[in-house]
Fold each of these.
Amino acid sequence: MIQKVKGTFDVYGDKGKKILYIKDVFKALTEKYNYEYVETPIFESSELFHRGVGESTDIVTKETYDFKDRGDRNITLRPEGTAGVVRSFVENKMYANGALPYKTWYFGPMFRYERPQSGRFRQFNQFGVEVFGSDDPMMDAEVISVAVNIYKILGLKGIKVNINSLGDSSSRDAYRNALIEHFRPHIDGFCEDCKERFNKNPLRILDCKIDKDKEVLTNAPKTIDYLNEESKQHFDKVKEYLDAVGVEYVVNPSVVRGLDYYTHTVFEVEADIPSFGSQNVLCGGGRYNGLVENIGGPKVSGVGYALGFERLLNALEAENIELDYNNGIDVYVAPMSENEKTYALEITNDLRMSGFKTEIDYMGRKLPANFKQADRLNATYIIIIGEEELKNNILTIKNNKTKQEYKIETKELINFLDDNIEEE
Ligand code: HAM
């Protein structure tokens, strides 16, 4: 039998219901903040991610799915959403006509060739937001509050918000020099990747998975000690605005993020749930003031974040949170024989078009089996249509919860259900 590719998964049953439910929650939340929905292609020119995510990142050097298409173009399956949204922002000139800030949200599959384990897949889904055109620290705080409020709305308690600042480009340069001086005497003892990172981008040594426990790494200089006055002020304001919107956080200097585009604020929300497992970063993001220019656009700043959907599901499960998705149907229609089917189908269609979630028996079940099926589908009402009902234009309708039975005229059906079924 052909099986799914390693690191991928199928969505079916309750997981499908949860995805749609959470997507609705995310849509409703981002609407409140006035974000606009965007979609960008799942594959893009490889160059976009080299320039966008960064040549020295693990994502680009080790994890992308790259291929040549039949026209000999270098194509990459997107490993993350930001670079594509930035490309779309620039290509569609969304910065024109005073339309800034441009605030967007997205949902979709991302692809990374990582070692699969619980909470880590090769195809996974991200929700994200990207906002363009405002340098105001209020925007950094807004994005972090979107990230935190989605967990709040879903009822997740065990979260810890870590924030940090990398500063502007001059602060980053000062920090980079400090890191080089710090690592130089020890670099011979590091892994081959880190030796390369030392020359290209020493910041990436900080997220090395092999050398992570080395003392020289744990006592490396901290970004916040190298912030210039302007960067410090920006970070102080972010903290002030986070307090204003009621987001609790800790300043954690070890958060540097694994992508190259960040400036100023970076943040991660981790699951603070006992026995959650090692893949506990639920979401991450930050400000990226040079990225739009880097991808060929004007000097416009950006800030955003993305949430791992599967890790969110794991966290909800770990806290035994039941989502309130509609798990039943309004009406189950049971024709007693072949003769009543056309009439039953007409009624079913009317119900569906009037907004009632309705199912009909397609299996030719006998009455007791139909009652069982209505239970299985968690139906609120069952309509039984036999010879007599058809002849007299009446319906037998039974409340499947109270077991009370009514005889009503067919033309009264919609009114009856309007009066008796609560709006979702
Ligand atoms: P990231 O930290 O690489 O950031 O990914 C964001 C989230 O996606 C992670 O916190 C994690 O929950 C989830 N995730 C990442 N890799 C996997 C995987 N292999 N399997 C399952 N879940 C995964 C970004 O992607 C940035 N684009 C975020 C951003 C947006 N920054 C600014 N704007």
Note: The chain has a mean pLDDT of 95.
Amino acid sequence: MSALPTDSLCEPTNPAEPTEPSKPIKDDMSQHSADPAPAATTSALATVARHRDWWRDAVIYQVYPRSFADSDGDGMGDLEGVRSRLPYLRDLGVDAVWLSPFYASPQADAGYDVADYRAVDPMFGSLLDADALIRDAHELGIRVIVDLVPNHSSDQHEWFKRALREGPGSPLRDRYHFRPGKGENGELPPNDWESIFGGPAWTRVTERDGTPGDWYLHLFAPEQPDFNWDHPAVGDEFRSILRFWLDMGVDGFRVDVAHGLVKAPGLPDLGDHEQLKLLGNDVVPFFDQDGVHEIYRQWRTVLDEYAKREAPEGPSSEARWWETGGRIFVAEAWTPTVERSANYVRPDELHQAFNFEYLTTHWHAAELRAVVDRTLEAMRPVGAPATWVLSNHDVTRHTTRFGNPAGLGTQIRLAGDRELGLRRARAATLLMLALPGSAYIYQGEELGLPEVVDLPDEVRQDPAYFRGAGQDGFRDGCRVPIPWTRTGPSYGFGDGGSWLPQPREWGELSVEAQTGVTGSTLELYRSALAVRHEHPDLGAGDSVTWLEAPEGVLAFRRGEFVCTANTNGTAVRIPGYGRVLVSSTEVVVTDGEFELPADTTVWWAG
Ligand code: GLC
């Protein structure tokens, strides 16, 4: 019998002493030099980032710029802050970052209300900063995906401002959905649609002469008027925006509300159909309309022009490796079924779609197995990789979801059982990273951060909160700036405060507190990602082979690997499957038999 404590399974992957930052911005230990990547990272480049279809099994890290790192001490994260932390992301072992919006915006919805798609908001920096960030990321072997928000603009976008200014009859109004109201004096909204954030999806404008005028559609906040995608200028503009960012060197786009761009002709009433709750999934006249796919076919041709560019030859090709791979779109498309999601990733459309069905699945073996099977079956015919995601900036962090009773959904206000939540979250992550396809990590989950459930109302900024969207309004709790150091102002987030208050205990969850600590959540993520890089087979392919397992346990083979996940609250005896590669809790391996602890995932090499 040999005892293998977790300690030996989660060795820090990059235990080397940190070196000086290339451009000192902060002085904590998570900074590393931007010098050539260490051996582990170089091999990662070779195996994943360099190959043309890098995105099929990529691990993509979501950076929420306002909450990642603040370089100028104003309490708000920025692009220079992100750039300063790229070495951390390299050492974590991610293949790409997805940056939530950093464009010019009045921030009515944290930047998802874009006033100028080709400019960086001064709060986040400048286009030069974006350029430096993209360049540095590439130097370190990290691809960059930016957010594209095509369903709506800000009400401060030039088109919308002019549409209002020029009044009824202005051709600019045709680029949005302006309609006369119903009722004797047009005092009622044109139809019965509700905003996702609560209240009617229509706002009436006051014309320049002070009289009440037409109404405009906004599926989200009133500051986010929906574009009319039937108007050719909208399509032209977005294809041009794509080119702008592709010319800046980005590797892809996350498409915000990808299912919402096209509305049913005539904007019909929902009638007594139950109104949609936050991006829910139901058949409604404003989501998942078939017409949306023509837009993506057009976008795909633009992207492919860039993807097909010849790889540069000669010595510079080493330095410009990122030009050799395809560029991608990932769809945020909430659809009624995973089969409908598959429509977005047909070969001539987008590349990936977030798997929200997986995100909303409980920590329950049978449910998880069913969704894994359904996902793989739905993606296989269209040839797209499956994706897996547990958290993002719109939902309660999964550490907290899993610490609460199942069935509470993705918007939870209760802290729940923290220890249980973290234990399950770690197990869920290892399970996710063993599945074929691409996985998304939301900043801070690698630290095991919980949702901040007790933010005082006066600091909240989520527009859904102010519009009383009922079950929503809690998105600020997953957006609290992440802790880098044990102590110091805003725990190393910046030299000033942070735009949302951080819980006092977050110092002990910081990058500094967890780096090099065997068994810490950060080192667990690092170990798992290092194993994925060393064994590219782990994320490849489109199937898993299920193995027989006791109730509440998932066991599947992926080539030479076996993954076993116990979703039960008690330990379960299973056969051993060889050598333990990574384990989410401490495990003891015996000859021939093995006790898989409660809420634990183990990776094996057979
Ligand atoms: C997406 C974003 C969310 C935003 C909404 C409106 O769902 O993820 O944060 O509020 O779109 O743009």
Note: Residues 1-49 have pLDDT under 50 and may be disordered.
Amino acid sequence: MKVFCYHTPELTPTDPIPTCAVAIDVLRATTTIATVLASGAEAVQAFSDIDKLMAASENWPEDKRLRAGERGGAKVEGCDFGNSPLEYDADRVRDARLFLSTTNGTRALQRVENAPLLVTAALVNRQAVVNFLCDRAPDTVYLVGSGWQGSFSLEDTVCAGAIVASLLDRTDFSLEDLAGNDETVAALALYQQWRDRLVSLMKIASHGQRLLRLGNDADLEYCAKEDILDVLPIQKDKGVLVSS
Ligand code: MLT
């Protein structure tokens, strides 16, 4: 297995495609995806465009449809939810489909949608993703950070590092064997530096600060938790993620 870390969708090659892609948006899209699937949602369908989200969700039964839209950290008018993982109550989520559009996370998913295996990771479900990678042992793995509008995000890269750290613990690979690019080594170093202070890292991160300004302090605490959800969101059809 060779692991390649990319900090943004824009930096992620589309040719060749990897055997397995892991889309990461810790603040907050992939944390929300893991949370709603762990609460029994039927699927999460991701859209980069809000109008397309509205049109597709119109055809879905109203009591089984949740519409979430976020731009710049804030909720989009006309949607039921923004992108906070803490907004969803389990009764409302069970068996429903979440139609989701966010600033960067859904673009990261689109960038690697042609990979034969596409899963999403956040700190909350890191171990479930590592279990999957250990079981399937794909030849090439891309860890794709969503970043923020084309630039690097600390929280996505630290999650990539958390995945690499756990893969090294769980397998016989050395870092030299596993790392496909320099970013992978840097992601691991970032995680090793901050693993005991992940909430502090979220608060320093530029998108963390944006969310704090919008009053989302509890989201940062939640998104910084490791391995609390045993759920693996996996792409079933293009843009549609289910719990495996
Ligand atoms: C994104 O896709 O950029 C994020 O998930 C933004 C957020 O809602 O925090």
Note: The mean pLDDT is 96.
Amino acid sequence: MRIDVITLFPEMFQGPLTESILQRAQDEGHLELNFHNLREFGTGNYRQVDDSPYGGGAGMVITAEVGVNAIEAVVGSQMESGKWKMENGKLKPHIIYLSPRGERLEQEKVEQLAAKHEWLILLCGHYEGIDQRIIDGGWIDEEISIGDYVLTGGEIPAMVLVDAVARQIPGVLGKDESAEEESFSKALGRKREYPHYTRPEEFRGLKVPDVLLSGNHAEIDKWRIDNTK
Ligand code: SAM
């Protein structure tokens, strides 16, 4: 899967997406991440990306021109590569604006994004957000929120989305890290996973449940089902 992130702060993504499983996913070619600095699409000598809101009020709004120019440049660069084609009259990337106004990101949505799309473009807002015409004009396919609270920018939400989606790409997780039986997975009826224990059998008076030491797999499975919630 290819994911392009359009952001005012591309440096923020170093670290969270360049360690452990996500770095391995990139090294092995399961995931290709590209970052584009929105500032490069700014206008005028100062590369302005925002302006004050019509109707007044605090904060600044990322302009439609800058947002659309950035999206079109990212899409255009790939269309020219010949790798991506039009599909039903639409460009192939699925373009998401991270926004508190969007649909709440949940595991089923994460699975759908990974299954349906080979190319995502994520637009991170900042300040008060973006000019609504970027959305209304059809440059955004959907708005996604990571929860009912407001963060300073779309960068952390984009990282959350990339991490969650990447885990669903076949081959990204090793055998020991399978996503099949985890909290919110279909296999667990979308419930929260059962608790885990590892050695020693007793730690400061706290014992591992007997059933997990019994070797009786039917009983262990039953205990695990009983302990999802
Ligand atoms: N004025 C906006 C509102 O009240 O809904 C909040 C803007 S917020 C300070 C700046 C940017 O952070 C947004 O444009 C969005 O990209 C991102 N953001 C903040 N909270 C978010 C959330 N819960 N989910 C997704 N993106 C979020």
Note: Helices lie at 20-27, 64-81, 107-116, 132-136, 155-166, 210-213, 217-226.
